[in-house]
Amino acid sequence: MQDKVILITGASSGIGAAAARVFAAEGARVVLAARRERQLADLVEEITDKGHDAIHQVTDVTDSGDVARAVEAAVARHGRLDGAFNNAGFGVEQRPLHLMDDDIYDAVMDVNVRGVWNCLRHEITAMLATGGGAIVNTSSVGGLMATPVAAPYVASKHAVLGLTRAAANEYGDQGIRVNALAPGTTRTEMIDTWLSLRPDIEQVLHAATPQPRTAAPEEIAEAAAWLLSDRASFVTGATLPVDGGYTIRK
């Protein structure tokens, strides 16, 4: 990833923050986007103190103008955008479908689907201007199967895979690769909140997983790094499960 200009959304914590560290350590010039400025600024300071190139742009991915400004920040600093990791996401309170309120559905779909939609449009525009690039969207094992009491989340992560395949098909001959990750249980703020409500669920998930543990965010970030790099130059439209084998048992 040496000298590649990579935009990362959802970069203030969890998988996004881990990706910023992993990509920068491989030589990428990272542009960090998320809503929480303090966390972004601290992460940029951490990365630049190690001699790497990083900037941040406060971004709400549900706002197309915000996403445009994040892409513009990358292009203004480096003259191009080589890659993007569209990782911003929103979880859902676990509840049976018939008890879900409209506002829960709207919030999940707005971040997880419209957010990726906004990112793809602006990132692809920038990449077309400079001959191509690579994009990775974060879906979930919930995009490959139906997990219970999380219908809006499952629907949103299936939609991410649809957007990924559509974009890969449409722009492959113009030098743009688009792939998706489907992480399993990973130690993030969203999972920690979930586990605080249902402490037993982690062991249930471990029991259903060939590798019976929770992933570190860095493990997901390494998979994203591979898909964004030239090492994956003939991979597009793919969904890579990073789930310890969870989905092979379903």
Based on the coordinates given, report the CATH architecture.
3-Layer(aba) Sandwich
Mean pLDDT: 94
The shape is globular
Distance between the termini: 34 Å
The quaternary structure here is single chain
Helix percent band: 40-55%
CATH class: Alpha Beta
Give the CATH topology.
Answer: Rossmann fold
Number of domains: 1
Explain what the structure shows:
Helix content is 46%, strand content 15%. With 250 residues, it is α/β, with parallel strands linked by helices. It has one domain: NAD(P)-binding Rossmann-like Domain (Rossmann fold), CATH 3.40.50.720. A 7-stranded parallel β-sheet has the order 3-2-1-4-5-6-7, sandwiched between helices.
In short:
By secondary structure, this protein is an alpha/beta fold.
Please specify the SSE layout and strand pairing.
Layout: E1 5-9, H1 14-25, E2 29-34, H2 37-49, E3 54-58, H3 64-78, E4 83-86, H4 102-128, E5 133-138, H5 151-171, E6 176-183, H6 189-197, H7 201-207, H8 217-228, E7 239-242
Helix pairs in contact: 1-8, 3-4, 4-5
